[in-house]
Amino acid sequence: MAIVTASDSGIGSRCAEMLAEQGFDIGITWRSDEEGAQRTARRVEETGQRAETIQLDLADPPEGGKVLQQLIDKLGRIDVLVNNAGANFKADFMDVTWEDWRKTFSVVMRRAINAPISVR
After folding, report:
1. How much of the chain exceeds pLDDT 70, in percent?
2. Phi (first) and psi of residue 8, to 5 degrees
3. pLDDT tens string 71-92
4. Which domains does the chain have, with CATH numbers?
5. CB burial of residue 119 (10 Å; 0-12, 13-18, 19+)
């Protein structure tokens, strides 16, 4: 089984599809695009593999860990973790403040650390 964080669109969605094509059941997470996660799940299921979707925000470590454990409980032992979740802001580069950068970096680092710790 593989969990692909932020697999509701883009690189995460395609990673989920490619892993399903290789025979993995897929845990699909999304933060704000449930419809995108459902689309990814349908494409995974078209390969003959199982898909489970769940909302996840890795910025909250205890809750994020519980959510990832729910996927493991539903799909079985985790073999692959694609830690695709990130953070960004929508602004012109020259309008981004140091505080914006600091917050974004902090969120990205927490997410990068929280997912692997949660599934060990």
Report:
1. 100
2. -80, -10
3. 999 999 999 999 998 777 778 8
4. 2-119 (3.40.50.720)
5. middle
